[in-house]
# Entry
Amino acid sequence: MLAVLAALVFITTFVAVALAVLVAWFTSQRFSAESVTQASAMPLLENTSGIFKNDELSTISIWGKLLERFDFVEILRKHLAQADLAWSVGRLTALMLLSGTLSIVVLANIRWVPVWAAVLFGAGGTAAPYLWVLQRRNKRVRKFEEDFPEALDSLARALRSGHPFAAAVEIVVAEAEAPVSTELKKVSVEGNFGTSWEQALQNLCERMPLLEVYMFASAVVVQSRAGGKLNEVLLRLAETMRESISLKGEVRALAAHGRMTGMVLTVLPIAIAGIMLVVSPEYLGALIAHPYGKYLLLGAVASLLLAHIVIRRIVDIKI
# Structure
């Protein structure tokens, strides 16, 4: 009986992993400029293989062969690379399954928690590691976007002084900070050792899905094929990026009030309930002891989470 229950929990958690990955993938599309630049920038780049090594998905062969049957594996692999994590897909999925299973087991042992609530929070525990990877990825992409204009200025100055493009990239790598230096170092290594510069720039676009990166790659490819003053193009692109970053900063500042309001409205009921448990335990004790009290408490928690998500979506202004 325990073996059957464990198998059912494992299968349910694995399905929850797949659903969480797909939902997070569609949500994270706002950080990608592929839909904007596919018709303009990407035709300039060669349609070659991806940047990622075709390494094994997991050190456990059975787990790796099982993961090979699912399409979301490539999504996980791409997000791990964009987050600059050396994890394998097998490690991430195993961590997600472990987190989800532990959440379900712990909540299932609490008598007043219904089965559907345990499964729901287990799905949340399953998605937690992947959401952390997405948060790290988005933070890294935003940091790259903020520092990239300075790197373009340095690259333009190096080109103006007479350095070839390969040497100019190495100069920027020595001066810039991570993640710009890390990504451009990968471009330099790939471009100088066995990979064409077009492919190296294509790989950069895959790792950093930003409109400005596609424009930079397209400018370099056009200059290598048709000639032109690349340094002037890079200077204009850096100026445009600064204006865009400034506008995004103003929008984030205006939306910060809404995010703070949502956080306060979410935390305040929980804080009040905690204070009441300390000051007057019998007041909430009647609610907990009532047969329908646990359903009301779970409904209140679910409503708080849903309201927080709705508020965050309202103040999430896209530019």
In short: Residues 230-279 form the longest helix (50 residues). Residues 161 and 168 are 9 Å apart (CA to CA). Residues 1-7, 21-26, 29-54 have pLDDT under 50 and may be disordered. The radius of gyration is 25 Å.
